[in-house]
Design a protein that fits this description.
The structure is a single chain. The protein is α+β, with helices and mostly antiparallel strands. It has 2 domains: 30 residues; 88 residues, Immunoglobulins (Immunoglobulin-like, Sandwich), CATH 2.60.40.10. It is 23% helix and 44% strand. It contains 1 helix and 10 strands. Strand 1 and strand 2 form a beta hairpin. It is globular and about 65 Å long. It starts with a helix and ends with a strand.
Amino acid sequence: MIRGKRLWLLSTGLTAACALAGVWLAGGLNGSPRALAAGGDLTIRTVAFTPGQIAIRVANAESSEETIAVVTVDDAIVPFRCTGSERLGRRSSTTVDVPFDWVGGDPYRIGVTSSNGRETSADIAAPQ
């Protein structure tokens, strides 16, 4: 009986470990397990603050082409320009440049919405 319980615990533990590894690997293959925000169709990889500008690296890990439709800073729609195309093919990325006079020490919520209306957002701790 004890041997059966040990075997069951071992097999259950190995199954759980394999499942977690599979989820982590799937995230790594589709975009990044360390992405700032993933949700909807797009993933916010990084956000960089330079004087008068916010640069947002956005990736598309979905199987279909997506278009960046709206960018928000603290829920306010802001103008933006993409370094590459606003249309992202599967597993492609672009940098979204937002002219914005940010204030050092203030936290920001950055949002990117695809043309199908799904938003991905990231809360950024106070930039310096």
